Amino acid sequence: MLTPNILTIAGSDSGGGAGIQADLKTIMALGGYGMSVITALTAQNGTTVAGIHAPDPSFAVLQLATVLEGFPVQAAKTGMLFSAEIIRALAPLLEKRAFPLVVDPVAVSQSGCRLLEDSAVKAMTECMLPLSDLLTPNIPEAAMLTGMAIATLDDQAEAGQRILAMGARAVLVKGGHMPGSSVVTDCLCQPGADPKMLPQPLVDTANNHGTGCTLSAAIATGLGMGLSLLEAVLQAQRYINLALRQSYAPGKGCGPVNHAAGLKRIEL
């Protein structure tokens, strides 16, 4: 099979563990060719996001238009979009796409810093959610979008159904923030089907920076390779679980998952 072109539209993490950097590592590790549209620059490490600089929305649009003109895209994902202006500027081009789109509604970094302006939540709901072939909120993000508290698996399923009713074509409510369990259960909701609970063993590590970015990039790569949505999600779950088991801390604070987990080092 030819190497699929996978596009990530997200923010840059100067610490290398999340955002564009995590996406491109994931895409390559899973056999895709990664391209990027950078929506924001962050000054970031494992303990904090010290600053955010967003380009003019017209430049984000120029990046996207130029990539789409030069490459056939098999799948794409969005991550940190930051502002209502950037979201509303990118949406018309993405609406015309002919490839699957995974939307990760990134709102807060692993260190607890806001990555989505409060004023952008409405734009995310109105413009990006209806474009998503799969929306991948974690529990706090699903609570933000639905306004409901999520404390049980039934709550996860209910939140997923509510987000479907808001216009998403499918929803994966991630369970990593659910306390008190030896498994992490993601809930996949699709129209006309019962919610699917997809458990994975809990990995006991503090080095989980970039997990959401990595999972959504892995799903997009699977879709770009022609997998069904369920197959792409299950493959992505296996990849992130392995990457968490081999995670490490290259610097201070929360370290990244290991995007090279499972790859063989080539001796030159």
Question: Mind explaining what this structure looks like?
Answer:
The protein is 36% helix and 19% strand. It is an alpha/beta fold and 268 residues long. The strands form two sheets. It has a six-stranded mixed sheet. Strand 4, helix 3 and strand 5 form a beta-alpha-beta unit. It is globular.
CATH-defined fold name of the domain at 5-133 and 206-245: UDP-N-acetylmuramoyl-L-alanine:D-glutamate ligase
Counting DSSP H or I runs of 4 or more residues, the number of helices is: 8
Annotation, overall tally of beta strands: 9
Enumerate the strands of the largest sheet in spatial order, edge to edge or round the barrel: 3-2-1-4-5-6
Provide the low-confidence segments as ranges: none
Strand content: 15-25%
Overall pLDDT, averaged? 95
* Cα gyration radius (Å): 17 Å
**CATH superfamily name of the domain at 5-133 and 206-245?**
Ribokinase
CATH level 1 class label of the domain at 5-133 and 206-245? Alpha Beta
- How far the N terminus sits from the C terminus, by CA atoms, comes to 26 Å
Q: In the CATH hierarchy, what is the architecture of the domain at 5-133 and 206-245 at level 2?
A: 3-Layer(aba) Sandwich
Shape: globular
Structural class: alpha/beta
The SSE order reads: EHEEHEHEHEHHEEEHH
Helix content: 25-40%
Blueprint (SSEs and pairs):
Blueprint (H helix, E strand, L loop, with lengths): L4 E9 L5 H11 L3 E12 L4 E5 L3 H14 L4 E4 L5 H12 L5 E3 L17 H8 L5 E2 L3 H8 L6 H13 L5 E3 L9 E7 L6 E6 L9 H14 L4 H17 L23
